[in-house]
Amino acid sequence: MRLVQLTVPTGRRETILETLDDREIDYVVTDEASNREYTAVVYFPLPSPAVEPVLDELQEEGIDEDAYTVVVDAETVISRRFQALRDEYEKGDVESDRISRQELQAEAESLTPTFGVYATMTIVSAVVATAGLLLDSPAVVVGSMVIAPLIGPALGASVGSVIDDEELFTESILYQIIGIVLAIAAAAVFAWLVRTTNIVPPGLDIGTVDEISERLTPDLLSLAVALGAGVAGIVSIATGISVALVGVMIAAALIPPAAAAGVAIAWGEPSAAIGSTALVLVNVLSVNLAGLLTLWYAGYRPENLFSRDETEKRVRERVVGLAAIVFIFAIFLGGITYASYGLATFEESAQNEAEIVLEDDAFAEYQLLETEVIVDEDYPFVGPERVIVTIGGPPGAEEPGIADTLAERINQQTNEDVIVEIRYVGQVER
């Protein structure tokens, strides 16, 4: 429910009050003596879905943007006429659950902080995320998402497009670009300082750190996170629900992969940064695409009737453009996913081949202890480089002599030339 307060321009009082009477809207009028351009201030409660159509109709009667219109939350309204309004406008569908276009625009603008605050919080968030990645700490990475101020620009571009506010759209796009650059740069600088000052162990292989490696080789599931974040973000602000947790979800799609890209750059492995950078870009585009589609589906349109066709055309072009770019990135991520699937399949096959060889009666005294696949550094399409097979045997026994057999059988499971190493561990007598 909302309480609307608006100033009545001189000469429009009777017309506006007649409009409210025709719609059977309860109102209170107070005379305005501080400004000769306005004769009164009128207060009236409305169900949330009624705010936009009523304000649009009043604007046609002479309430323009120069007038003061304030829309605030109303906790409780007790009135039979108000209940009739609720029955008229609250239909239980998407459009009746959303806030007005005017409130949506104000909400989108309020979610974006000043540039100084935005830049500072983005840098801090990226630094914290980088520390979390290097510590291999999911808790610290989640903490970095909480402080990231990304939800405003991420959703503002969609809102600006749909309601024909090009200033909001341009500002949001600019903020998003600056945010990505700042996050990757801050992460790279911080990671370089950590590395050069030996805060982390010298020779650390970032590919062995789980929190980093999973973002260096992203897969198609990452698209679901970004699209879900975009839809949830728009639904949250369009229905007046708190956006705090949704902001964390959007940050989860952007800050950790940006930090991973910065770490890869600091470690002198630019090829390793390709996958995480692509993940950042596709997530940004997916959030914007999902936001655009959700807003249009929710029924938001520009205020000016004459600009609706032009806005619809522009939104359609942006949706098609974003979808095309996201599709290209999806193919790229699909290639990474396929490579990861092939690697996982090879690891299982190598394990099975080692077990089959050792099942021979000639090797009854030996047992397979471990099979480890070492991957190459051809990011983001990594593949197997070496297979280390650890075998245990009786005290004093020699290595069972199955290296050539295992190497032949394991290499049959892949198109690449894989080195197979055998490590023999003799059991100690007690």
CATH architecture field of the largest domain: Up-down Bundle
Outline the biggest β-sheet: 4 strands, antiparallel
CATH class of the largest domain: Mainly Alpha
Q: How many individual domains?
A: 3
Enumerate the strands of the largest sheet in spatial order, edge to edge or round the barrel.
2-3-1-4
Number of strands: 7
Amount of beta strand? 5-15%
SS content category: alpha+beta
Shape: elongated
Rg, please?
A: 30 Å
- What is the subunit arrangement here? single chain
Question: Which fold does the CATH topology of the largest domain refer to?
Answer: Glycerol uptake facilitator protein
List SSEs in N-to-C order.
Answer: EHEEHEHHHHHHHHHHHHEEHE
Helix content: 55-70%
Summarize the structure.
59% of the residues lie in helices and 12% in strands. By secondary structure, the protein is α+β, with helices and mostly antiparallel strands. The strands form two sheets. Strands 2-3-1-4 form a four-stranded antiparallel β-sheet. It has a three-stranded mixed β-sheet with strand order 5-6-7, covered by helices on one side.
Molecular structure report:
The structure is a single chain. The chain is an alpha+beta fold and 430 residues long. It has three domains: 2-93, Alpha-Beta Plaits, CATH 3.30.70.120; 103-301, Up-down Bundle (Glycerol uptake facilitator protein); 342-426, 2-Layer Sandwich (GMP Synthetase, Chain A, domain 3), CATH 3.30.300. Helix content is 59%, strand content 12%. It contains 15 helices and seven strands. It has helices spanning 13-22, 48-60, 80-89, 94-97, 101-110, 115-135, 138-146, 151-162, 166-196, 210-216, 221-238, 244-266, 272-297, 308-358, 403-411, and strands at 2-9, 28-31, 38-46, 69-73, 367-375, 384-393, 419-426. The strands form two sheets. Strands 2-3-1-4 form a four-stranded antiparallel sheet. The model has no long low-confidence stretch (mean pLDDT 83).
